[in-house]
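Morning!

This is the sequence you dropped in the shared folder:
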Amino acid sequence: MYEEERMMILNMLQEEKISSEEAAKLLDALDESETKETNELINTAVNKTDNMSNKKNNTQQNSQSFEQKIESIVDKIENKTENLGSKMEKLGVDLAESTTSIAERIVDLVNNINFDGLTFGNYKTVTETLEKDISNIANPAFEFIGVNGKVSISSWNKNKVFVKATCQIKGNKLENLSEIYEIVENDDIISFRPKYNNLGAKLEVFVPQKEYRKINVLTTNGKIILEGINTKNILCDTTNSSIFLTNVKSQDINLFTKNGKISLQNAEGDNAVLSTSNNYILVERCNIKSIKATTSNGSIKGYSIPTNYSQYLELTTSNGKIDISFTDTKANFVVDAKTSMGNIKVGFPLIYEVNDQNNLGRKRITGYSKDNSDKYIRIKASTSNGSININ
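The structure's back. Tokens below.
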């Protein structure tokens, strides 16, 4: 893909002159066929945006809206890209599990571009660093706020918090700005946050290897990545992108996004609440007592769940499968699983209270292990247009 054309499309998207779907189709066209015709069409659309304010008084041909130009481009590349909703109807569950959302694809593209020193339309890139010595603070609480960008947090062996903020801000505002990010402290939490609105900011954060009372990570349209963190409470909240947590320890883990995947691996804790849409949730090798995972149009996958620690799993999706495996199937289980247009398979013996799997449509089983032990792992799984496998 040509870098110049890609930046032009992203610039148009950022200025809300095209929608995410239109931008995705243009990016697909560049990916699939970098032909002279496609490049000319994109350049024509970009040139038309330069004089949008003067079009009202021109002829009907010159006053054609930018949106109409985009529609004409989309019509010409329609044979190369299909509408995502149509594909969902045609391919069903398999496509829902294998297709990354349009919004997340664009966000990934933006996150992978090195903006240092770039001028992006009317925006310029500024990099700031912030530091906070916490050697004398016991169990501190932190909040890290990004804007339309990725936030990554990992631990290191120093006694200070270090934040690198890469910010995009309109050039005409830079003259009046001394600092873009600030540290705000109160009795409850120490916050690293932007001082201004209407900017983009991604954060790279390093925190000392110690136990924290709370870590909140908030952003929009950007990934959240945490690795090697020990805290009593974790809150991660983003949109249109994914959340990845690895080697974390926390009593309460709360992960929220839309149109992005959630991955929780090698984690320890008491409670985990995971919520997304239009993408999958993965939980792997996690010692967590209670897990509640909710998505739509995506699968829920749980691998190597330890039976000596887990107590409760509540898994809910639609148009996707649920696939769970445990380290020991000889443990005691209580299962309540239901689906429509799919199968339910359990890889260990149960005493069934309900075993309704003969219908072509809705199916449900409820049952428990024959051992009379008071210690059970309770599993509640629900989906539609997908199967449930518990092993």
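Headline: The first helix runs from residue 3 to 14.

More detail when I'm at my desk.
O.
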